[in-house]
Amino acid sequence: MATSASSPHATGFPAEGRCGYYVEKKKRFCRMVVAAGKRFCGEHAGAAEEEDARKRILCPLDPKHTVYEDQLAKHLKKCNSREKPKPDFYIQDINAGLKDETEIPEQLV
């Protein structure tokens, strides 16, 4: 079996328009799309030498993704992992039943 010369692993470079970060655990380059003129995706932008001025930190609501430290306040307002407000008609434990037998009214027994 001959390997294709156009595959990223054979050439040692990522595919065109893809992130240049090499994921050691998966033994391949990151496959996320990069912005025009960038070398790394948003997740691996910290690996870029030219962006050392801006620091990325873990999101406090969901540590599965990162955010720029200077944009944290803006991110917290729109992060999908934030707790969403309950609707007006929502009542906590409405169908849970009685919590204690002593709460049974005598008229119903």
Automatic annotation (TrEMBL):
Residues 56-83 form the CHHC U11-48K-type domain. It catalyses: cytidine(4) in tRNA(Gly)(GCC) + S-adenosyl-L-methionine = 2'-O-methylcytidine(4) in tRNA(Gly)(GCC) + S-adenosyl-L-homocysteine + H(+); cytidine(4) in tRNA(Pro) + S-adenosyl-L-methionine = 2'-O-methylcytidine(4) in tRNA(Pro) + S-adenosyl-L-homocysteine + H(+); adenosine(4) in tRNA(His) + S-adenosyl-L-methionine = 2'-O-methyladenosine(4) in tRNA(His) + S-adenosyl-L-homocysteine + H(+). The keyword Transit peptide does not apply. Keywords: Metal-binding, Methyltransferase, S-adenosyl-L-methionine, Transferase, tRNA processing, Zinc, Zinc-finger. InterPro entries: Trm13 (IPR039044), TRM13/UPF0224_CHHC_Znf_dom (IPR022776), Znf_CCCH-type_TRM13 (IPR021721). GO terms for biological process: tRNA methylation. Pfam families: zf-TRM13_CCCH, zf-U11-48K. One of its GO terms (molecular function) is zinc ion binding. Its EC number is 2.1.1.225. The keyword Zinc-finger applies. It is an enzyme of class 2 (transferase). It comes from the Eukaryota. tRNA methylase which 2'-O-methylates cytidine(4) in tRNA(Pro) and tRNA(Gly)(GCC), and adenosine(4) in tRNA(His). PANTHER family: TRNA:M(4)X MODIFICATION ENZYME TRM13 HOMOLOG. Belongs to the methyltransferase TRM13 family. This is tRNA:m(4)X modification enzyme TRM13. The gene is TRMT13.
